[in-house]
Amino acid sequence: MPYYDDATFSLLRKIDWYGDTEFRAPQMSVLLEELDRVMPKAADPDEVAFMQKLRQIAARCASMPGCTLKFFGD
Questions:
Q1: Contact, 31 vs 42, CB < 8 A?
Q2: φ and ψ at 6, to 5 degrees?
Q3: Bridge partners (DSSP) listed for residue 24
């Protein structure tokens, strides 16, 4: 995942690993594009599987008005 100061990622860099982060359905197209950019960097099969599942969830959310995708931090 990108660092918080990587301006080339408008959404993934905003994920707060210690707090909660929420993205809404209209943001999913940007999130999907950013996920496509980081997926090739997945280092092992578990990371690849996680990224594929996350992408499926984001794509489903994109097709559902009012849907939100929430990341819960530690």
A1: no
A2: -85, 100
A3: 68
Q: Which residues contact 32 (CB under 8 A, 6 or more apart)?
A: 55, 58, 59, 62
In a domain, 2, yes or no: no
3 — pLDDT class (breaks 50, 70, 90)? confident
12-64 pLDDT, tens per residue? 999 999 999 999 999 999 999 999 999 999 889 999 999 999 999 999 999 99
Q: Could you tell me the maximum CA-CA distance found in the chain, to the nearest angstrom?
A: 34
Q: Would you say residue 17 lies in a domain?
A: no
For residue 59, what are the domain limits?
26-71
- By residue count, the chain amounts to 74
The two three-digit tokens of residue 58, written as one number: 């984001």
In a domain, 9, yes or no: no
Total tally of structural domains belonging to the chain = 1
